[in-house]
């Protein structure tokens, strides 16, 4: 593996600024790494070799010109990135992990992609995901399962397993994910990487292929807290193209990541997120992380959020309901797959045949569930009640933040499980998101940071931090403090370093 692929995004940026490496060299090193190991990992659905190298050369040329003009390039200019295949990128295949969009090349860039390009960040390609972000293991992709770089027989989490696996396997230093119920944070926990769900509305949804419009949030994935903060700053901010975008300044996330001082910070351990059903190694690492933060001067108390236990059933009524509405546009008439259009079938038959062939089992399950929840006679009993529970969960957060600055819990109840272990048990699969879903329902900021390895299996454990709306900086303050303390405890070895993966299939 090239020394360049071992570097953090911040280190790569320094190498380019000092003239010790070019973006073309760095990009080529990561493309070579993808070629070497992605046959085993399957993090990518599309690698844009030609486009990435062209972007890299453009940044190098701009940097050369800037030395003469004195222009300042963005902090991440020239750094490569992996993009979840749910965000549109003009002229690049975008499938959302579904056969129904196979071969579709969007005619426009999403706002996130526009901001990546404006920052000079090089997009290596599109990463694998559960179909339309419906899943917790990346086993629901129509294009095959992604494997966890820590153990290729295990899942990398979902729905954004491809993005987290790519950075864990050193195929990219940065990645973009989207988080609807934990799809950035849960894969981050399972792969020993940093995954951040910004405040809902803090990053634009324009050009994001919608799953659940009141929940979807694009966010950064990285191997270090500082790298995630730098990427967060690059993509965040108000967007008039998104009606839910928040018109406020981006929180000082980079400053918080560089500071990492938690002295006097009030931290609440959520009583309801732990105990029965949680793997002992996960709880052990979590409590050790809390103790580390206490030693750094944080004030830790237990906090009760009684309605969190209802978050999972409420979420699995709200999300399918919004999904059934959002996915109605895939009708075989405008773009994507079309089946049965032989001149004899009606438009309704073509639509039906196309959806039967193009949607996977989990997508069909959630569409049926959501359509039923929204149907006459059931709307108030199911969807309406779920929205009331959502309000109660938001009130739990508000009450908790009157007592503490941030809330913490394990990111997931267990470490990564074996591929195929839960694919036929939807309820067991849904329980992966017990800790992450409340933050999506309330819209507040949340993140998972690596906090060690479970004793039972040697696999990564995630430390989950939740902060109030538009206080995303507090996430990075805690993450940076924990990362620094763990590095010192482990003799300078960050827990984000996955075992060497030098196999090719």
TrEMBL record:
Catalytic activity: L-glutamyl-tRNA(Gln) + L-glutamine + ATP + H2O = L-glutaminyl-tRNA(Gln) + L-glutamate + ADP + phosphate + H(+)
Gene3D superfamilies with a match to the protein in the record: Amidase signature (AS) domain (3.90.1300.10)
Keyword Protein biosynthesis: yes
Family the entry assigns: Belongs to the amidase family. GatA subfamily.
Protein EC: 6.3.5.7
Record's keyword terms, sorted: ATP-binding, Ligase, Nucleotide-binding, Protein biosynthesis
SUPFAM superfamilies documented for this protein: Amidase signature (AS) enzymes (SSF75304)
Residues annotated as catalytic: 84 (charge relay system), 159 (charge relay system), 183 (acyl-ester intermediate)
Subunit structure: Heterotrimer of A, B and C subunits.
Protein name in the entry: Glutamyl-tRNA(Gln) amidotransferase subunit A
Amidase domain ranges (all copies): 25-475
Domain of life: Bacteria
Annotated organism of origin: Kribbella pratensis
InterPro entries: Amidase (IPR000120), Amidase_CS (IPR020556), Amidase_dom (IPR023631), AS_sf (IPR036928), GatA (IPR004412)
Keyword ATP-binding: yes
Function description: Allows the formation of correctly charged Gln-tRNA(Gln) through the transamidation of misacylated Glu-tRNA(Gln) in organisms which lack glutaminyl-tRNA synthetase. The reaction takes place in the presence of glutamine and ATP through an activated gamma-phospho-Glu-tRNA(Gln).
């Amino acid at each position: 593996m090239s020394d360049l692929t071992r570097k953090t995004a911040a280190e790569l940026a320094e190498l380019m600024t000092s003239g010790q490496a070019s973006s073309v060299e760095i990009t080529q090193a990561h493309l070579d790494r993808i070629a070497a190991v992605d046959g085993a990992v399957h993090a990518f659905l599309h690698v844009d070799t030609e486009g990435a190298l062209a972007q890299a050369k453009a940044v190098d040329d701009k940097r050369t010109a800037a030395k003469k003009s004195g222009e300042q390039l963005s902090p991440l200019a020239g750094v490569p990135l992996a993009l979840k295949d749910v965000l549109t990128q003009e002229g690049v295949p975008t499938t959302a992990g579904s056969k129904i969009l196979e071969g579709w090349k969007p005619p426009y860039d999403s706002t996130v992609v526009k901001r990546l390009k404006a920052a000079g960040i090089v997009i290596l390609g599109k990463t694998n995901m559960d179909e339309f972000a419906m899943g917790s293991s990346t086993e629901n992709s129509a294009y095959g399962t992604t494997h966890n770089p820590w153990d290729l027989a295990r899942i990398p989490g979902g729905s954004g397993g491809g993005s987290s696996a790519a950075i864990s396997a050193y195929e990219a230093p940065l990645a973009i994910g989207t988080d609807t119920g934990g799809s950035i944070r849960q894969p981050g926990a399972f792969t020993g990487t940093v995954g951040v769900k910004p405040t809902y509305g803090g990053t634009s949804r324009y050009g994001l292929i919608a799953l659940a419009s009141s929940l979807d949030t694009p966010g950064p994935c990285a191997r270090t807290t500082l790298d995630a903060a730098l990427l967060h700053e690059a993509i965040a901010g108000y967007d008039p193209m998104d009606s839910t975008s928040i018109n406020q300044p981006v929180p000082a996330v980079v400053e918080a990541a560089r500071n990492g001082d938690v002295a006097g910070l009030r931290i609440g351990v959520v009583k309801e997120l732990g105990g029965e059903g949680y793997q002992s190694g996960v709880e052990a690492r979590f409590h050790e992380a809390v103790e580390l933060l206490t030693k750094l001067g944080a004030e830790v108390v237990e906090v009760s959020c009684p309605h969190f236990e209802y978050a999972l059933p409420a979420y699995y009524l709200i999300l399918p309901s919004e999904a059934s509405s959002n996915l109605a546009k895939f009708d075989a008439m405008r773009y994507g797959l079309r089946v049965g259009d032989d001149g004899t079938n009606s438009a309704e038959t073509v639509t039906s045949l196309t959806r039967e062939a193009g949607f996977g089992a989990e997508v069909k399950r959630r569409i049926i569930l959501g359509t039923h929840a929204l149907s006459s006679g059931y709307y108030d009993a199911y969807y309406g009640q779920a929205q009331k529970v959502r309000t109660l969960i938001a009130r739990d957060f508000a009450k908790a933040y009157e007592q503490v600055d941030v809330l913490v819990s394990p990111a997931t109840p267990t470490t990564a499980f074996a591929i195929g272990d839960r694919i036929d048990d939807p309820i067991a699969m849904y329980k992966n998101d017990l800790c992450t879903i409340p933050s999506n329902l309330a819209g507040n900021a949340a993140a998972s940071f690596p906090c060690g390895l479970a004793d039972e299996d040697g696999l990564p454990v995630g430390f989950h931090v939740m902060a109030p709306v538009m206080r995303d900086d507090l996430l990075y303050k805690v993450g940076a403090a924990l990362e620094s303390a763990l590095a010192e405890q482990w003799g300078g070895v960050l827990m984000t370093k996955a075992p060497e993966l030098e196999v090719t299939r």
